[in-house]
Specification:
The complex is a heterodimer of chains A (85) and B (237). With 85 residues, chain A is α+β, with helices and mostly antiparallel strands. Helices cover 33% and strands 28% of the residues of chain A. In chain B, 24% of the residues lie in helices and 25% in strands. Classes of the chains: A alpha+beta (85), B alpha/beta (237).
Chain lengths: 85, 237
């Protein structure tokens, strides 16, 4: 069993009103050092990796990310394959 | 001839009955198509409607899960064969997620669900969905009701939409002027509705089915359904 994490967030040139609101809220709490916040979502995925190496798993995760987990028109994603436990 | 509308129903769709009621009120026929019918038997319809609502609870992204429903394969074939498909609100979001129309929806600029009447400029009256507006009206009044109607497309995509006359409806003021103030949700270029290059797929955020009866305060929505019916009658001649 392997675990992977896919993080998806809006592209830099797409306005992220939620991130902006959180940015302002952090300023309101006194964290003036915060310059920008982008809100995203994370998917923790358990994988049955029988017979698959890391490259093959990453290729499948990339396919999943493009087809469903993200909308490539507005979102970027990052895949993290976690070490075997 | 009788014009038949097929109204696709996903779990969470909630404008299916309104849509059926609206088109039947105009003298057309309508029937529901369940989301898990892979063949969908769509050929018996003159137009397929993806109605408004919250398909699959808007999980992941609006329209994202619905875009992989069994019926969508049939909808794609229907589109490829030149059939007319209209996506209203959540249906528009589904058309974007399935790649039948370009661009994507993001949260409204002010992070609020907006439910109110808006004025809409008919930019293109030479589509099967707006042809009846040509002689009658250039500014339509219909309600919007959405959290994610902030249409996004990159610059190259926008240029392509403009060059190919695919921008059908734009948010405007009552005089037909498109201004930042008349843009309710932050949509790129005040875009409220677009069609594909072939002009047989139309997606719009406003709800024509909620503006098809005087008792609901507006009847401009009828022009959309009448346009479809007239186009079909024209094609049939």
């Amino acid at each position: 069993m392997r675990r992977a994490r896919v993080v998806v967030w809006l592209k830099q040139d797409v306005l992220d009103p939620q991130g902006r609101t959180i940015n302002e809220a952090l300023h309101g709490l006194g964290y003036e050092l915060v310059e920008d916040v982008r809100q995203g979502k994370a998917f923790d995925i358990k994988l049955n990796d029988d017979g698959l190496d890391d490259d093959e798993l990453l290729a499948l995760l990339e396919e999943m990310s493009k087809r469903l987990l993200s909308n490539p028109v507005i979102e970027d994603f990052k895949i993290e394959l976690l070490h075997k436990s | 001839m009788t014009v038949r509308f097929g109204v696709v129903v996903f779990p969470g769709t909630n404008c299916d009955h309104d849509t059926k009621c609206a088109v039947e009120g105009l003298g057309y026929e309508a029937d529901f198509v369940w989301h898990n019918s892979p063949h969908g038997e769509l050929d018996r319809f003159d137009c397929v409607v993806l109605p408004g609502g919250f398909a699959y609870g808007d999980y992941l992204r609006t329209g994202a899960i619905a875009a992989f429903s069994p019926v969508i394969g049939a909808v794609k074939r229907y589109i490829d064969n030149g059939g007319l498909v209209i996506g209203i609100c959540n249906g528009f979001q589904v058309l974007l997620e399935m790649g039948a129309l370009p661009g994507a929806m993001v949260r409204n600029r002010d992070l609020r669900f907006i439910c109110r009447f808006v004025d809409l400029l008919v930019k293109q009256a030479d589509t099967p969905f707006t042809a009846a507006c040509r002689r009658v009206k250039h500014v339509l009044r219909m309600p919007i009701s959405h959290f994610e109607g902030n249409y996004y497309i990159d610059e190259a995509g926008l240029r392509s939409l403009v060059d190919n006359n695919q921008i059908v409806l734009k948010y405007c003021d009552s005089d037909g002027k498109c201004t930042p103030k008349s843009n309710p949700n932050g949509a790129t270029f005040n875009i409220a509705g677009i069609c594909n290059k072939r002009r047989n797929v139309f997606g719009l955020m406003p709800h024509p089915e909620r503006a098809s009866d005087a008792i609901l305060g507006a009847t401009d929505g009828r022009l959309i359904f009448d346009s479809i019916a007239q186009s079909i009658a024209g094609l049939a001649l």
